[in-house]
Amino acid sequence: MKESGLELLLGCDANSHHVGWGSSNTNAKEEALHNFIMEKDLMLLNRGTHPTFMDCRRHEVLDITIFTTGMVDVVRDWRVSKEPSGSDHSQIRLSLTGRTDIIQRRNPKNSDWKGYREELSLRIQDVPSRFKNREQLEHAAESFGEAVKRFFKNNCVPGTQTGTKKVCWWNNTLTSLRNQLRKAWNKVKNFCDSIHKSKALEERKNL
């Protein structure tokens, strides 16, 4: 990566336990992966110990997000999402900072039409009513057209709009399916939690 001058942001299912990224324990294989990340001058984004993997047998941090040092000022707000993913691995979310394109737009509804008409009326007085040839007519028409656009800009203050928009493909059907997924996920989670609780009580009795 250093030779190419490129930056790296990588999220993956490492299937490895290490306390360095929030797992409950560490073993030799995972220690080797952790050492590799450090040797390559990479950085871990993982924060906290909230599990990224959950099933009825265990809750664990198995997913890691790594990045190069050049991304340190770009990546923000790494977190394990509570939104159901439809998988035994949770969604990992983060924010990327960067330049947002600023778009300026003029809304005719917000124009000062009185000022526009006054400027245009003064300009019309200078427009000749007769022309000797087509070239004079075309020149006058072009000049007048430019004046119309200029007076409009003078009397309509542009508004600022960012380049970000809502996704166009989201619809009510997807919202309904997401709600169904949440309900199904909550049922599974509650069932798994009850199993974990039963196992904990059983282990406590055997102490």
Automatic annotation (TrEMBL):
Q: Which domain of life is it from?
A: Eukaryota
**Tell me, what's a Pfam family for it?**
Exo_endo_phos_2
Cross-referenced InterPro entries, in alphabetical order?
A: Endo/exonu/phosph_ase_sf, Endo/exonuclease/phosphatase
Q: Which GO terms describe its molecular function?
A: catalytic activity
The UniProt entry, under SUPFAM superfamilies, shows: DNase I-like
Q: Which residues form the Endonuclease/exonuclease/phosphatase domain?
A: 7-92
Give the protein name, as stated in the record: Endonuclease/exonuclease/phosphatase domain-containing protein
